[in-house]
Design brief:
The complex is a heterodimer of chains A (about 140) and B (about 525). Chain A is α/β, with parallel strands linked by helices and about 140 residues long. Helices cover about 40% and strands about 15% of the residues of chain A. A five-stranded parallel β-sheet of chain A has the order 2-1-3-4-5, with helices on both faces. In chain A, helix 4 links the parallel strand 3 and strand 4. In chain A, helix 3 runs parallel beside helix 4 and helix 4 runs parallel beside helix 5. With about 525 residues, chain B is α/β, with parallel strands linked by helices. In chain B, helix 1 packs across helix 6 and helix 2 runs parallel beside helix 3. Classes of the chains: A alpha/beta (about 140), B alpha/beta (about 525). At the A-B interface, helix 2 and helix 5 of A face helix 6, helix 7 and helix 13 of B.
């Protein structure tokens, strides 16, 4: 995978040209094993996955790397997920990046808050990989590389 | 007994003292003031008082005695034969009322009447005191109960939150265990031999079991506290089955159980909360896998009944069967049949009870046919996606559950024919609905909502919707949402008959062509 900084500079902002650029997914989760699993699952696809391990790192990484979609947990140190979603939505640099929440919390009020704050989708852990890929394919073009 | 006699008439006082001469210590006062001072200073067992005193008369005199000695038995003497006066003094706290003209006629009459009256007065006062004490105790225990109840609700909330947090803490490692097992088994990180693959399969399967147990634990507490929200809508049973069967088939394979789905390729669209339906079916299949025979056979069947406008889903096992007398109890929490569990997967015995509650939330019925020695068939129904039929079932369920309140039919319209935008708006509307409300999508950009509430303020609903609308519009990557108009079609008190007027209005809505939002009403986006 290319280092984040390098990718950020070549990032295309125009979603209409999706077909010609490698989709980028930012994964924000405090558990490194989640990153590993996601990367292994997506390694057959032509896609870049970048990482952030706590809430506010997710925000700065999103600003920097301008991913096509963000997959994030809710319960995280240094930046609760709901707050992170709000930050991403209030920042002009990240306000239009789709956010897919991947959480073990089933509390309906959290789900509602996540949507209210601007999340696009809410998936439950443990997630079936096929479901996650299907959800991601709404936002990025996933082709086998 | 020590008795206080308040009497300004000397003759009457003498007669009274004579009447009380035996066994009583009588202290006489000639004015109310003097009597009250004595009462304040000395404990008396009873008071016998005239009602026409120079410094106090009638009910006022009684009231003043009561102020100083609230629980000393009090008998009053009067010249006035008046029912009104009698009622008034009794109401103000005297225990008995004696007419001088009847009592003070001779020493003998006076003795028997006054003694009897005092005796009764003391008894009445004692019962009154006892009553007051009991009422006090009752009030205390009521307060205590209230306090305990508050504490319990608080504890319940904490427990709920705790269960939520614990389940989250469980799920994250579980996700990793499951996902890594699956990645290794699929050979993503290197070759695995057949035995390793088999063992990894079991690992995945058992982590699924753990996840189901966590779901059960969460569901049972939510269902019991009635906070489960349900979003029934049109969905494809085929999609639900296609999603559910692969992990269930794997589970069966791991346990060497022959699991099969018998369903037509073409299945009708159903009306359900797909997640609740999935949980129901998972619980029934997991139950059948647990209790089937050796070798185990489990059949999932789907049958469309066009007349009843519903689909029956059945799960049949070849287990020991359940004796008729146990069939009713089988849904109770933590109950498992006496028959031996097939394998080491016991669980909590919550699954069937939860399944039954979830079927009810999905407007269906649960059923069980079981023959001892042959096996059991657990099944449930779910309505097909016919809005009118669903409305009837929904209202019937509210009536059966003795839900109190008003039902409102509300039409919501948005100026869009785009399915994706409609989907976003629907999500937004759903979020503003309460637990028992039901939303029907009529067409793209048009909905009917049946809401149930003790009182419904359209403005409050619109306000919530408007806030959500503003937030979503601001944050929506696809651009702001079109305006949403809300129109109340009608409102009916929920009774067994609500169905007919509401259904009529609902039918009218369904048959109306898509109406443009009323231009006289300001759209929400501008409100």
């Amino acid at each position: 995978m290319m280092p984040t900084l390098q990718r950020a500079s070549t990032k295309r902002r125009n979603r209409a040209t999706l077909g010609t650029h490698t989709p980028e997914i930012l994964c924000v989760d405090d558990d490194p094993a989640i990153h590993t699993a996601l990367q292994l699952r997506l390694r057959d696809y032509d896609v870049n996955v970048s990482q952030a391990f706590y809430g506010m790192q997710g925000v700065s990484e999103a600003v920097r790397s301008q991913p096509d979609v963000i997959v994030m947990d809710l319960a995280m140190p240094n930046g609760d997920g709901l707050y992170v979603i709000e930050c991403l939505r209030n920042n002009p640099a990240t306000c239009s990046i789709p956010i897919v929440v991947l959480s073990g919390m089933r509390d309906p009020s959290r789900k509602r808050q996540a949507f209210d704050n601007g999340a696009e989708a809410f998936l439950m852990k443990p997630v079936a990989f096929a479901d996650l890929v299907e959800e991601l394919s709404h936002y990025v073009e996933l082709t086998k590389g | 007994m020590r008795i206080l006699l308040i009497e300004d008439n000397d003759d009457h006082a003498i007669l009274c003292r004579m009447a009380l001469s035996e066994g009583h210590d009588v202290v006489t006062a000639v004015t109310l003031g003097e009597g009250l001072s004595l009462l304040a200073a000395v404990d008396f067992d009873a008071v016998l008082s005239d009602l026409t005193l120079p410094d106090g008369e009638g009910a006022t005199a009684v009231e003043r005695v009561r102020e100083v000695a609230p629980s000393t038995p009090l008998v009053v003497l009067t010249n006035h034969n008046s029912q009104e006066l009698e009622d008034s003094v009794i109401r103000h706290g005297a225990q008995d009322f004696l007419l001088k003209s009847q009592v003070l006629v001779s020493a003998k009459t006076a003795r028997s009447a006054i003694n009897r009256a005092l005796h009764h007065a003391i008894h009445r006062q004692q019962s009154l005191d006892e009553q007051a004490r009991l009422v006090g105790e009752l009030r205390d225990s009521q307060l205590q109960l209230q306090k305990q109840n508050d504490q319990l609700s608080e504890l319940c909330k904490t427990a709920q939150k705790f269960v939520d947090n614990v389940s989250h803490e469980f799920r994250t490692p579980l996700t990793i265990i499951r996902e890594y097992a699956s990645l290794i088994r699929e050979g993503v990180v290197g070759d695995v031999n057949a035995q390793q693959a088999e063992m990894l399969n079991v690992l995945e399967d058992r982590s699924d079991d753990l996840n189901t147990m966590i779901d059960d634990m969460l569901d049972v507490s939510r269902l019991e506290s009635g906070i489960v929200s349900v979003r029934r809508k049109e969905c494809s049973l085929r999609d639900v089955l296609d999603r559910l069967m692969p992990p269930l088939l794997r589970k069966a394979e791991v346990r060497k159980i022959d699991l099969d789905l018998e369903a037509d390729e073409e299945l009708p669209l159903i009306w359900a909360d797909a997640e609740k339906l999935s949980r129901t079916l998972i619980n029934l299949v997991v139950n059948a896998i647990k209790f089937c025979g050796q070798p185990g056979v489990v059949r999932v069947g789907v049958e469309h009944d066009p007349v009843a406008a519903e689909v029956s889903i059945t799960v049949k096992d070849n287990g020991p069967g359940i004796p008729a007398d146990q069939c009713e109890m089988i849904y109770e929490r933590f109950r498992q049949p006496v028959a031996a569990v097939r394998q080491s997967t016991k669980g909590f015995g919550l699954g069937l009870g939860i399944a039954k509650d979830l079927v009810d939330l999905n407007l269906g019925k649960m059923f069980l046919h079981s023959v001892v020695g042959e096996g059991s068939t657990f099944g449930f129904t779910v309505p097909i996606a016919d809005p009118r039929g669903v409305l009837d079932r929904y209202l019937q369920r509210l009536v059966d559950a003795e839900t109190q309140g008003m039902t409102r039919l509300v039409e919501l319209t948005a100026d869009t024919t785009d399915t994706a935008t409609s989907g976003d708006i629907e999500k937004l509307i759903e979020m503003q609905l309460f637990r028992d409300d039901q939303l029907f999508a009529i067409s793209d950009g048009r909905w009917a909502a049946v809401m149930i509430a003790p009182s419904f303020e359209q403005s409050q609903f619109e306000e919530r919707l408007m806030k959500g609308h503003a937030r979503q519009s601001r944050n929506r990557p696809r651009g702001p949402l079109p305006e949403v108009s809300v129109r109340e079609v009608g409102c009916w008190q929920l009774t067994a008959d609500t169905g007919s007027p509401l259904a009529k209005a609902f039918d009218a809505l369904l048959s109306q062509p898509s109406a443009k939002p009323d231009p006289s009403r300001e759209g929400l986006a501008h409100a």
